[in-house]
Amino acid sequence: MPETTEDMQVAQPDEQVKALERLIGSWRVSGGAEGTVTFRRLEGGFFLIQDIELEQYGRRITGFEVIGREKPFGADRAGEDIKSRFYDSQGNTFDYVYELDGDTLTIWGGEKGSPAYYRGTFSADGGTVSGAWVYPGGGGYDSAMTRIN
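Structure (tokenized):
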């Protein structure tokens, strides 16, 4: 039973998670990977789900990603970073950290500050995100998303 007014307040998604909602919709991906991705909000607004259908290096990649703040069982509050886990049809999982600063989206591979990351910029109308994946040792590829709907 709640003992105070604070205990009775319903949790709300924070502004940084809400800011990622500009990704909601379907996008055509081009560059080093080709295909479509669709972002949707999970009821409650704490998480986004990304459905992925891509082809890269001749290999089909399908799966989904859950994006939001981790709140472990029994924890009082969610973590500091917006994290995600991608699950693919081959049984692989990949972890990322999402960061949105103005119109610049950074997706860190693994942990924030990783040498593997994507950095892209939203166009003024929000219809495209253009950038590149960067990998340690100078690897990576250009990647752009164009909004379909």
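The beta strands are 25-31, 34-41, 47-56, 59-69, 82-88, 93-101, 104-109, 117-122, 128-134, 140-147. The mean pLDDT is 92.
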